[in-house]
Amino acid sequence: MNTLEYKDFYDKVGKRIGWDFSKMKCVSDGLPWDFYNEVTKVTKKSDLLLDIGTGGGEAILSIADSALLLVGIDHSTGMMETATKNAVSSGIPNVRFLQMDAEHLYFPKHFFQVVSSRHSCFYPNEIAKVLAPGGIFLTQQVSENDKGNIKEAFGRGQAFGKKNGTLKNGYITELREAGFTDIKAFEGNVTEYYQTPEDLLFLLKHTPIVPNFGETEDDFQILEQLIRDNQTDKGIMTNSSRFMIIARK
After folding, report:
1. Which of 1, 82, 144, 147 fits as disulfide partner to 56, beta carbons 3.0 to 4.6 Å?
2. Could you tell me the CA-to-CA distances from 194 to 23, 65, 245 in Å, in that order?
3. What are the residue boundaries of the Methyltransferase domain, all occurrences included (predicted)?
4. What predicted TM-score, i.e. pTM, was given to this entire model?
């Protein structure tokens, strides 16, 4: 996918479900961390928190009691529509959602004590601009070897063919150049089991793991073979590979 195709795809998913994948049945041992739990560990009740690429806002609404004010931004109109609905139905008073591109953060300098970004693009210089001295930035991103057997089967996919660690090392370099210090990186790779073919199909239709999935009949033939090759007693096997970076300004 190019940038415009990805944004269009993301917007459509946002209008349908936000980032709520709760109905999809998948079993795994889980990563050695929970990202938004890590965010709450470094957040004080008096802090202002910015969440970049907040999607439907499900995550920061769930940790609303950890900070004085939480602001979620997203470039997608569809995601913002879902986030606004979620905020209204929750009745939580200290969470705000704004449509904004991560490349241009229109906030006062040094406004936030904590900035988070899960599975979303971010720009270290922009974060450094709005983060207070001593503030903390946390991000979790998808590693290149995520869903390796799926991408191999289709011969294409998110970061397909790229060396594992390329994205993580690039982000660390950019953060250093933006003035961040005490940069720590963590990696996790776990086995996942999707319980039914419908669950795996839901994943492929609502994420960019395999770009333009389903546009040709061949995709469904490949999917059928993939399921046969990876079916186990626990479900259809693949992997989830992530990295997390925590950096202080």
Report:
1. 82
2. 12, 33, 27
3. 50-135
4. 0.88
Q: Residue 175: enclosing H or E segment and its boundaries?
A: helix 166-177
> With contact defined as beta carbons under 8 Å apart, do 230 and 157 qualify?
no
Q: How far is CA 116 from the centre of its chain?
A: 10
Task: Note the Cα 99 to chain centre separation in Å.
Answer: 17
CA distance 235 to 241: 18
Q: What is the pLDDT of residues 160-199, one digit of tens each?
A: 999 999 999 999 999 999 999 999 999 999 999 999 888 8
Q: Cβ distance 120 to 10 under 8 Å?
A: no
Amino acid identity for residue 184 in this structure: K
What CA–CA distance (Å, rounded) separates 235 from 198? 12
Residues near 33 by beta carbon (within 8 Å), at least 6 away in sequence: 186, 188, 244
Residue 22, pLDDT score: 67
CA distances to 30, 55, 67, 126 from 71, in Å: 27, 12, 10, 16
Are 200 and 227 within 8 A, CB to CB? yes
64 close to 70: Cβ distance less than 8 angstroms: yes
Both structure tokens of 223? 């999917």
DSSP bridge pairs for 71: 50, 96
What's the whole-number average pLDDT of the chain? 90
> How confident is the model over 56-73, as pLDDT tens digits?
999 999 999 999 999 999
* pLDDT average, residue stretch 126-153: 97
Give the other-Cβ count within 10 Å of 166's Cβ: 12
Q: Which residues contact 227 (CB under 8 A, 6 or more apart)?
A: 197, 200, 236
